Amino acid sequence: MVEGVWLGDNKNMTAIQNIIAGINQLKPASCVSDKVMAVISNPQSSAADVVELVKYDQSLTANLLRLCNSAYVGAIKKITSIKQSVALLGMEKVLSLIMLANNAENFAAEQKGYDLSQGDLWRYSVSSAIIAQELAREKQVNNVAMIFTAALIKDIGKVILSTYIADAFEAIHSRMENERLTFSAAEKDVLGIDHAELGAMVAQQWNFDSEMVEIIRYHHDPLLAPEMRLPLCVVHVSDCICMMIGQGVGADGLSYRYCQAAADRLGVTAVDFQQIIVRFREKYEGIEALINISGGFK
Amino acid sequence: MNLIVGVGDMRVSNDAEAVLVTYSLGSCIGLAVYDPVARVGGLLHYMLPDSNLDKDKARLNPYMFGDTGIPSLFKAAYQFGAKKNRMRTIVVGGSQILDQDGLFNIGKRNHALLRKMFWKNNVMTHFEDVGGTVNRTLKLEVATGQAWLKVSGSGIIKI
Question: Do residues A209 and A37 make contact, with C-beta atoms less than 8 angstroms apart?
């Protein structure tokens, strides 16, 4: 049950309720997703739990093995079973790959309202998740698989809002120009809800844990979160870096605010920022392959 | 035939069939050059201004950085018979996230570096669309030198 907990002063509740109803049009993250989240959040989880997650889903297993053997992952030998994947790659990496294999479908399509061609939103989401994973490791922030997943699905609200944005784009654009609003603020102003709010509702409906819901909700505005925790800071800063690199960015462009306090909390310097961009470039071909394999584009 | 120039990459061609294209310019700069006599076109997509950040990596891929990528682009075009005094240049990109200031101002720094290098080397900019919060795509047709710019949320314009 979705609750309108973030909807405060909205003028047109019916229109907003219609948008929220769109959550049910999404392909539900298979029941694997919430089980993966349970394994991620339990420090006692073992390789056997990971095997258990996917063993009854043949297509997920096949997708997962293809990802495990992709150039980006760089396994030292061919991986032929899930058990072997955990032994060779480690549980954290395999859990991230399961989320990758399991989420592409919702993100892969064209999102006309946001001027995103087929594959663009997935390209952006995977790039952002990889940057978040790297930044979390570098700054020794715990729970990397959860951070990866949050960065991967944080824009799920766009998949629903895209249809409405197409009609409202001119109004949103003029709010941004005339009132110097961010895209999110203009989106909220015109439609009554923004993609981060809607995304948090999706995550809640899919039974993701409260920290994950909070990261999705506040990924553009970490200062508004009840508590600005490190994983939220990682996802926000990575999102900004990804926007600057520009992979799969749509009509909203870079029209969001950068939160210096989040970067400061992580201790990210100007040099860190640039080095992350350099490392992304070094792995670019592998990342493209990962995007194409997981998205079913090649 | 589209020849895609990825992030931190460069292509130069005199193939009359080729269209050079680079997508997704956020804070990065897309620099296109064209010599209408030699009919040579080149396109560079650099991500960061200064290779002093990591000299070794800049040696492996000079196109990531403006200070190594820009000379590489001109040199590669000269090898195809282009001459500096005939070359037209198009500069797009260098956007910024809102509230990004000081050290993290990569879009502005990317553009400032280009202006400085052009000024020092006496190179003119013939078309420029830089800054703001938009995402850009740039296309250059090698046979004619015709270029197109797509700005996120707006249409495509002929340059």
Answer: yes
